[in-house]
Amino acid sequence: MTPVRLSLCDDHAVARAGLRALLSRADGIEVVGEAATGEEALAMAARPSPDLVLMNLQLDSGMDGVTATRRLTSECGGTGPRVPVLTMFDTDTDPDTTLAIEAGATGCLLRAEHPDGLFTAIRHAASGRTALSAPVADRLMTRLRSPSPTLSPREHEILGQLAHGSGNREIARTLFISEATVKTHLGRIYGKLGVETRAGAVAVAKERRLLG
After folding, report:
1. What is 143-181 written as a DSSP string?
2. DSSP 3-state assignment of 191?
3. Are 78 and 71 in contact (CB under 8 A)?
4. Per-residue pLDDT tens for 55-105?
5. I need a surface site. Which of 48, 78, 95, 138 has the fewest CB within 10 A?
6. Please, are residues 179 and 172 in contact by the beta-carbon 8 Å criterion?
7. What are phi and psi of 112, to 5 degrees?
8. What is the distance between the alpha carbons of residues 76 and 124, in angstroms, rounded to a whole number?
9. Residue 149's Cα: distance from chain center in Å?
10. What is the pLDDT of residues 171-212, one digit of tens each?
11. pTM here?
């Protein structure tokens, strides 16, 4: 059986070493390259291409994981590697999971995946099948089945201000309302989005395309 040729893209050398050591235990999987940035992953794909690039979504510098995934899957004329993405988070806390799948990722795997599950998912991805960790699949289905929340025009305005990092006082001044009114609207926004924090509200809003 021809082994699956796989490259790793992760900005943490220790994480790459750990993945390489783990994957060396798997039959039929061969790690043929490593990249610390999205740019390096693209350069590797320009050479004799690996079958897969296992992409860390949380890259700290340079091109982000979603952009690298989109370019790997769109700029190689259909002959480039498939890109399963690797993340620490599920879709409740990481909107990039959904964005990566929309960008062409073959699937999404959690770092906490059991090794045998990871090996199976990699083989599925290499054959063109969707590879999703069970928690990710469950949460994506829940998102798809849940109706999008309906926000008022004012709530949309405040959510936009949150996305720009504005505090309550700044929002109040910008929108010519009181801070108490801002807090009231925030409570309603949190309730509709099912979150408890400003960061959570912005993350869910990005995932559900609620920001203009």
Report:
1. HHHSPPP---HHHHHHHHHHHTT--HHHHHHHHT--HHH
2. helix
3. no
4. 998 888 788 888 999 999 887 556 679 999 988 765 545 567 777 887 889
5. 78
6. yes
7. -80, 5
8. 21
9. 22
10. 999 999 999 999 999 999 998 888 888 888 888 888 777 886
11. 0.67
What end-to-end distance do the CA atoms of the chain give, in Å? 49
Torsion region of 18: left, alpha or beta (phi above 0 gives left; psi -120 to 50 gives alpha): alpha
Q: Are 99 and 69 in contact (CB under 8 A)?
A: no
Distance CA 161, CA 126 (A): 42
- CA-only gyration radius of the chain, Å: 20
Asked if 7 contacts 33 with a C-beta cutoff of 8 angstroms, the reply is: yes
Tell me the C-alpha distance between 98 and 2, whole Å.
31
Q: What is the DSSP letter of 2?
A: P
Report residue 77 as tokens: 């004329």
- Torsion 125-129-133-136 (CA) sign: positive
Q: Which of 93, 92, 88 lies closest to 108, judged by CA?
A: 88
On whether the CB atoms of residues 98 and 91 are closer than 8 A, the answer is: yes
Cα gap 38→33, rounded to integer Å: 13
Mean pLDDT on 124-144: 79
